[in-house]
Each structure stands twice: as structure tokens, then as C-alpha cells.
Design brief:
By secondary structure, the protein is α+β, with helices and mostly antiparallel strands. It is about 50% helix and about 15% strand. It contains 10 helices and 7 strands. The strands form 2 sheets. A 5-stranded mixed beta sheet has the order 1-2-3-4-5. It starts with 7 loop residues before the first helix and ends in a 6-residue tail after the last helix. The structure holds iron/sulfur cluster. Iron/sulfur cluster (SF4) binds near residues 19, 248, 250 and 264.
Length: about 270
């Protein structure tokens, strides 16, 4: 059986529940869009485009205001672009307004950190707004593939500072906890980066948009973790595609107060008999 191309999210799905992996990646049942995914995509697109803004008219008097208003305009534009998807969710107008405002607040929080970084960099190097903006501009939405490991990932931001490389993923999660699934995602990115560039990134982290950036130093153990989990999924999925070999793992992630697993109705994990 041919090796499938895996991704951090397929590997984390497999680890959470093999049956869920089976429905999503082998049977390819449709997944349902939800507001958390859609607003996450909107926030990601806004930040991706933020670094393309023209800063030639920004000066000492206006630059904090100009960066903030540019970010707001980009966000408004993206929210409009995503209207067809938002409408397909059939949210009550009050709910849509709530998510709009909440996402805007997250982006404004991010911009506060961005402006602090810009200020620090300018003080340290005595450079202009445009020069500092350029230095802070990461490589965005970089696709990285490993043929050897049969894994692919899209990295939100790769920052090259003077002598360090930092890989960042943006998350809109409400919790500020670096979960095991996030550590594995970052470990896989580190492996992909190492294979492409012949050296490990120095640090990886999650920018929790409601809070702040949480970073960790990349160690060899992270690459070993990524290799171990990638090998484990290939070992299983290249041997069988039989549903019975992908067991259900019922857990609180099947159904929670505001949602449920995309395959809950098909799976019926808590049905008797
Ligand atoms: S409903 Fe629960 S057990 Fe069933 S596929 Fe989803 S996560 Fe797995």
C-alpha cells in the first residue's frame, strides 16, 4: 500500500482517535466548516497580508496609528472576502458580530506586541520604521515537504533574525496552554525545516493571539519525537485501510458544550449495542 502524505493535523487526528482519522483521510467524509476555523482563516490571512502594507508614508507621529488602522482595514477586507463561508454557517447576526469583534480584539492585541518589537528593534539598531518593518517581515505560509518522511506542512511565519531562525504558528485558541499536539506540530515543522536547510531552527513557538507569543528552544529530542510519531502513523496506515483497524476512542472531544466531532452522527460513539 502506498505511503500516504501526512501532515501535523492528520498525525494529531490519528493520535486523538484512529476512527476519526479513518473518516477524514481514508473514507474522505466531508468535514463541517465552523466559526472557529473560519475566523482562524480570516485572522491568518489578515496577518499574512499585513506585511505587504506600504509604509512609505508612515512617520514618527503617525506610525502606531497607521499600523493599527492598516491592520483593521485588512481584517475588514478579509471578513468581507469570507462572507460566503460565514453565511453558510447560518449564525445569528449577534453571534457573527460577537466573533467579528472578538477576532478584531485578538488582532489588535497582536499589533500591540508587533509595535513593541518594532520599537525595540529600532532602539537597538537605530534604524527607520521601514527598515525595522522589513527586518520583522517573516516568510509567510511556507509549504514544506519531506519526501523521505512523506510529510507536508504549511508554516505561518519563519523569522530570520541576525543569527537565529524562529518558526511561529498563530492560534486563536482560548487557552494559553502549549498542548502536546502543538509541541508535536512544532517538532514536525522543525524536522521539515532541518531537512530543507541542513540545520535546526533555533526556536519555535505559538503566538496565542488572545495573549502573547510562547516560544521554546528546539532540541534534538523534538526531531526524534517528530520522527517517532511520523514512523508510527506510516507503519499503521501503509498496512491497512480496513475500518475495523481504526478504533474509536470516545472522549470529551467527541461532543462538548458548543460543538461536536465532525463525524459524531456517523460514529455514534456512545450508542449502546
Ligand atoms: S465521535 Fe469520537 S470516537 Fe467517533 S470519530 Fe469522532 S472523536 Fe472518534
Amino acid at each position: 500500500m502506498a505511503k500516504r502524505v501526512q501532515s501535523p493535523s492528520s498525525i494529531n487526528t490519528f493520535k486523538q482517535c484512529k476512527r476519526k482519522y479513518y473518516y477524514q483521510y481514508i473514507e474522505c467524509l466531508p468535514t463541517l466548516p465552523n466559526i472557529h476555523q473560519v475566523r482562524g482563516n480570516i485572522a491568518h490571512s489578515t496577518l499574512e497580508n499585513f506585511y505587504t502594507i506600504d509604509v512609505s508614508q508612515f512617520n514618527e507621529e503617525n506610525y502606531t496609528q497607521m499600523f493599527s488602522s492598516s491592520l483593521q482595514q485588512l481584517f475588514l477586507h478579509q471578513w468581507k472576502q469570507y462572507q460566503p463561508k460565514l453565511q453558510s454557517l447560518h449564525l445569528h447576526p449577534d453571534q457573527e458580530r460577537f466573533y467579528f469583534e472578538e477576532t478584531m480584539l485578538m488582532l489588535m492585541n497582536w499589533s500591540k506586541h508587533f509595535l513593541e518589537d518594532l520599537k525595540q528593534l529600532r532602539t537597538k539598531k537605530n534604524i527607520s520604521i521601514a527598515e525595522a518593518f522589513l527586518e520583522l517581515t517573516p516568510i509567510r505560509e511556507q509549504e514544506m515537504t519531506s519526501e523521505e518522511w512523506s510529510v507536508r506542512g504549511f508554516i505561518d511565519a519563519i523569522h530570520q533574525f541576525d543569527d537565529e531562525v524562529h518558526i511561529i504558528d498563530y492560534k486563536t485558541n482560548s487557552s494559553f496552554e502549549m498542548k502536546d499536539s502543538m509541541i508535536l506540530q512544532l517538532a514536525i515543522y522543525s524536522l521539515l525545516y532541518s531537512e530543507k536547510h541542513g540545520k535546526m531552527p533555533d526556536k519555535v513557538g505559538i503566538f496565542f493571539l488572545r495573549q502573547k507569543l510562547k516560544m521554546m528552544k528546539v532540541e534534538k529530542e523534538h526531531l526524534e519525537l517528530a520522527k517517532k510519531e511520523i514512523a508510527a502513523i506510516h507503519e499503521h496506515t501503509s498496512k491497512t485501510e480496513d475500518k475495523k483497524d481504526y478504533k474509536c476512542s470516545p472522549s470529551p472531544l467527541c461532543k462538548w458544550s458548543s460543538g461536536q466531532c465532525d463525524f459524531y452522527e456517523t460514529c455514534k460513539p456512545f450508542a449502546k449495542g
